[in-house]
Write a structure and sequence with these properties.
- The chain is α/β, with parallel strands linked by helices.
- Helices cover about 50% and strands about 20% of the residues.
- It has 5 helices and 5 strands.
- The chain has helices spanning about 40-60, 75-95, 105-110, 120-130, 140-165; strands spanning about 1-5, 10-20, 25-35, 65, 100.
- A hairpin with a 2-residue loop joins strand 2 and strand 3 (about 25-35).
- The radius of gyration is 15 Å and the shape is globular.
- The two termini are about 20 Å apart.
Length: about 160
């Protein structure tokens, strides 16, 4: 199964394309969609949308894994990130791709086994699991890889429950 992991934002959108077969992960590509701070917000949304269309067209993921948003402070930032998240997943929605959401707690628990793990611990586990020389950069890209892996592990767990349930 090909999974597209997405860490949403409007300055940086991390993405990772991971194949998950037979309980093993293989990184296909990873990176970040970036927009400049001086761009009008609408132009930033358009750039994110077009780049995500290209990523989905190029890699043809079967499922999408994205971070579930949670904000408890700045409402303006929350609204802007929510708008960016919408245009980020719109190409997947238009193609009928299943979209799965995971909280940071779920990602940490899945990758490290502890929901309060530090970001560096998650990044190091991602590096180790994919046999990478270095932790993916920027952090948004590393988060997207962790989201893709979390989804693969979730699929594996569901299959096990169905089999032995």
């Amino acid at each position: 199964m090909r999974i597209l992991g997405i860490d949403p934002g409007y300055a940086i959108v991390g993405f990772a394309v991971v194949d998950f077969e037979g309980g093993r992960f293989r990184l296909i590509d990873m990176g970040a969609v970036t927009t400049e701070a001086d761009m009008p917000f609408e132009a930033r949304l358009k750039a994110i949308y077009l780049d995500m269309c290209q990523i989905i067209s190029t890699y043809k993921p079967q499922e999408i894994s994205i971070e579930k948003l949670f904000f408890n402070t700045n409402q303006k930032t929350a609204i802007d990130v929510a708008q960016a998240r919408g245009v980020t997943i719109l190409p997947a929605i238009m193609q009928g791709l299943p979209i799965y959401e995971y909280t940071p707690l779920q990602v940490k628990s899945s990758i490290v086994g502890y929901g309060r793990a530090e970001k560096k611990q998650v990044q190091e586990m991602v590096r180790s699991m994919l046999h990478l020389k270095e932790v993916p950069k920027p952090d948004d890209t590393a988060d997207a890889v962790a989201l893709a892996i979390t989804h693969g592990l979730s699929i594996n767990t569901r299959k096990q429950l169905e089999k032995y349930g």
